[in-house]
Design a protein that fits this description.
The chain is about 40% helix and about 25% strand. The protein is of the alpha+beta class. The longest helix has 22 residues. Bound molecules: methionine sulfoxide. The site of methionine sulfoxide has 13 residues, from helix 3 and strand 6.
Length: about 160
């Protein structure tokens, strides 16, 4: 498991990315690449964004790193992704085989975290990470992934001003 030092390094690196990225789209691409390359247990890293103005609301796959997923569009009432976006809460699943909401992306996936991205208090999307290791997303990882999602939310807010 990545130690606290490594998490602190990654936190500094994503902070630098957020400061330098010209827009949220670039930031999301650079962030998924960084997290996927550097965090050894983050085996699939991607953003799903809510489709604007399209009832019923649907999550659409955005920037990602890892194997192609069959789930490029996820309704809010489906999957762990739908649960996180509709509740506005981070969802951590230590063993996806025991969660009936889970939509399989890779047979190797054992655990998953999904963190909503907020713009002015409203969910606009989410950061989804899958691991080939069970219970990969300890509270320290949860804090890091939530920080990443916050950086993207702030970048989107600064563009919307
Ligand atoms: N496992 C997710 C679907 C997305 S893939 O993991 C990339 C879910 O249950 O919503």
């Amino acid at each position: 498991m990545a130690g606290t030092d490594r998490i602190e390094d990654i936190r500094k690196e994503v902070t630098a990315l957020a400061g330098a990225a010209p827009n949220a789209k670039e930031l999301m691409q650079q962030m998924v690449t960084l997290l996927h390359e550097r965090m050894l247990k983050y085996n699939w890293v991607g953003f799903y964004m809510l489709e604007p103005g399209a009832p019923p609301p649907t999550l659409v796959l955005g920037a990602f790193e890892g194997a192609m997923t069959p789930h490029t569009r996820i309704p809010l009432n489906q999957g762990i992704c739908g649960a996180a976006a509709s509740s506005g809460q981070t969802v951590v699943v230590d063993d996806v085989s025991k969660d009936p909401r889970y939509l399989a992306c890779s047979l190797e996936t054992k655990s998953e975290i999904v963190v909503p991205v907020f713009v002015h208090g409203k969910v606009v999307g989410e950061l989804d990470i899958d691991s080939h290791f069970s219970a990969a997303f300890t509270p320290e990882h949860q804090t890091l992934v939530q920080y990443c999602a916050e950086l993207v939310g702030k970048k989107l807010e600064s563009a919307a001003r």
